[in-house]
Amino acid sequence: MSHSPSLTSATSTTRPRTSQGGTWRMLLAMALSGTIGLLVVESALPPLLVVFARCVLGALGLGLWLAWRREWVAPQGREWLWLAGGGIALVLNWVALFSAYHYSSIAVATVVYHVQPFMLLALSALQGEPVERRKLPWLLLALLGVALSSGLVGLDGMDASHAGTGAWIGVALALLAAALYAGTTVATRRLGHMPSAQIAMLQMLAGGLVLSLWALPLLTHIAAASPQLLSARAASMVLTLGLVHTAFMYTVMYAAFQRLPAPAIAALSFVYPAMALLVDLAWFGAVPSAAQWVGMGCIVVAVLGHRLTGQS
């Protein structure tokens, strides 16, 4: 599946699979994922700070989970490099996606972000893996969907009247986020014997450590120049994002992965963009143009088609 929003969906666990309880866990995780954009926007904090806080809180929560479950596999040799590279790509992916929310609507950014399977397909091709021709039509449909979702291409030609002047920047950032997450997935696949929660925690620690070089000076500057941004409301949004929408959500999602077959996981993952769309419509009053509706539909159909023709 795509980041929808699994950090390490390509990694399997060693526990036996049972279907009991998998569906409701996956639905809960995807519903929570769909409200991430709301928390990011309502915090009114720079995306860099939000991502840094998410890394710290998420790693803390997942670390406690690992300690409770007594699950730990010592990384070996080059695995540390894959963890570091995947972690840096992960946090940069979050920075790009959270920044996209400020330029285009949450719904458009989220749906465009779901072209990740095609980014992974491109990375696989660059690594010399053969690309199945039957997947190429879905790739073209996804590209058409991205063009329409940007709002710059209308149904009757060029028409930017329904999109904000920065809408295309939001789409570009969402595409960058998808590409970065594809890179995280490639790195994660080299760590298949580790528990998923451990990989996620170590990736957050690695990425958060690098991000701290910019996040901590920014936090100091904001505290001195604009302390009103560090409000109780902002703190509550960030705490919820880190503890509920990261640590708790991923533990629930990992449990769902253990219980459900891949087709069920792929189908239920679309609750994520659907919830994001509902949040955008109900909370922010965002109304996509006709072209954007069609574009988002094209992307959803393309990703479904891609998954039905086999996992990349």
Quickly describe the structure.
By secondary structure, the chain is mostly helical. It has helices at residues 22-33, 36-43, 47-69, 79-100, 106-113, 116-126, 136-149, 167-188, 196-225, 232-259, 262-268, 271-282, 290-308; strands at residues 153-154, 157-158.
**Number of extended strands:** 2
> C-alpha Rg, in Å?
19 Å
Average pLDDT reading? 82
Approximate shape:
globular
Describe, in plain words, how this protein is organized in 3D.
- The chain is mainly alpha-helical.
- It has one domain (22-308).
- Helix content is 69%, strand content 1%.
- A two-stranded antiparallel ribbon has the order 1-2.
- Strand 1 and strand 2 (157-158) form a beta hairpin.
- The longest helix is centred in the C-terminal third of the chain and has 30 residues, at 196-225.
- The radius of gyration is 19 Å and the shape is globular.
- The N and C termini lie close together (9 Å).
- Residues 4-17 and 156-162 have low confidence and may be disordered.
